Amino acid sequence: MMNHDTHDWTWVNGQVLTGDQPVIHGDDQGFLLGIALFETIAVVNGKPVNASAHLHRLMSGLQQIGITPPAEPLDAQRILDDLFGKASGRHGVLRITVTPGRAGRGLLATPFGDSAILARFSELADQAHHPVSLHISDIRKNPDSPASYLKSISYLDHILALREARKAGADDALMLTSDGFLSGATTANILLWDGHRLVHPDSHAAALPGTTLALLQALLPAKRKPQSGRLTRLDLDVAKGIYLINSLKGIQPVNAIGDRKYYSDLNGVYAEMTKALRRFVVAECGEHVGEGVFPWLSEG
User: Fold this and answer.
1) pTM over 0.90
2) What distance in Å separates the CA atoms of residue 238 and residue 251, rounded to the nearest whole number?
3) Tens digits of per-residue pLDDT, 122-134?
4) What is the DSSP letter of 152?
5) Is residue 294 a part of any domain in this protein?
6) What is the pLDDT of residues 61-86, one digit of tens each?
7) Do 193 and 79 share a domain, yes or no?
8) Torsion angle defined by CA atoms of residues 269, 275, 280 and 281, in that order, rounded to the nearest 10 degrees
9) What is the domain extent for residue 36?
10) CB burial class (10 A; 0-12, 13-18, 19+) of residue 243?
11) How many helices (H) and strands (E) does the chain have?
12) Would you say residue 141 lies in a domain?
C-alpha cells in the first residue's frame, strides 16, 4: 500500500479509511456506553515495541468484559504496514481500540455485528528529556472496581486529575486509592527506589498491570527486579528515587511531589533500568531508535 498521511487515516477491521469516511456507527456500544479497551504501542523505526505483551493484555481484557475477540489474531506490524507501507524510520505511537460493535438500546443489549477494531498511528515530535513534578490528586481510584485494572477508554477521572495537577503547577497527578494507598499517575505506573529495592503498588492498588513494568521485571537482574507492596505517602517521604513507567515514557524520573524534592535521575538504578530497556528496543527495532522522540532511549 502507498504511503499516506497517517494522521488522517484509520485502520478499521482490516480496511484503511480516509479522514472524511465515518469509522464508527452511532449505535456502537463503545461510543454510547464506553464499553471498549485500547492499547498504545510505541513505534520505533516503523516497528511496534513489545507488541505481544500489549496484545495479550488487550485480548485478556476483552475476555473479561465479554467482547468477542477478533477471529484472526491482531498483528500490530501488519496494521502499521497497512497504514503507511513498508517505510522505515517512523517513530510514534499506534493506538488500537476495540469495542463490542453495534447493538440495540440498553445496558445489556447483545451486539448484532462484529466487534469494531480501530487503529491509528501518530507520529510524535521530538521531546526534551526532563524529570517531572507530581501533584497528589484529590480524585481517588477504586481498588474494588474491575475497571481500575483494565485499559478502558473511560478516562474521565484521569483527565480531571491531570487538569487538577496542571492547575497546581505540576506536570502530572499522583493518584491514591480510596483507602489511601499509592496507585499511580494518570497514564503511568509508579516505581519507588528506597535505596535498596525497587517497589511498585501491589495488585490491589487500582493500578493497570503495566507492560513496561513487566518488561523491566523480566530484563533486570534479580537484585533489581521490582517488587510489589502496599505503598503509602510515608513511602514517598523516604524514597530515594521515584519513576513513572509506561510504553511511551519509558522510565521518567520524578523530581518533585509538592514541596518534596527528589534526584531520581542521578541514581545509578535509573541508568541501569534505561539501559536494559534500550537494549530490548534495539534488539526488536534496530539502531537509531529515535532518541529525540523517546529521550529515555538515549545512550547518554
Assistant:
1) yes
2) 20
3) 888 777 778 999 9
4) B
5) no
6) 999 999 988 888 899 999 999 988 75
7) no
8) 120
9) 6-123
10) buried
11) 7, 15
12) yes
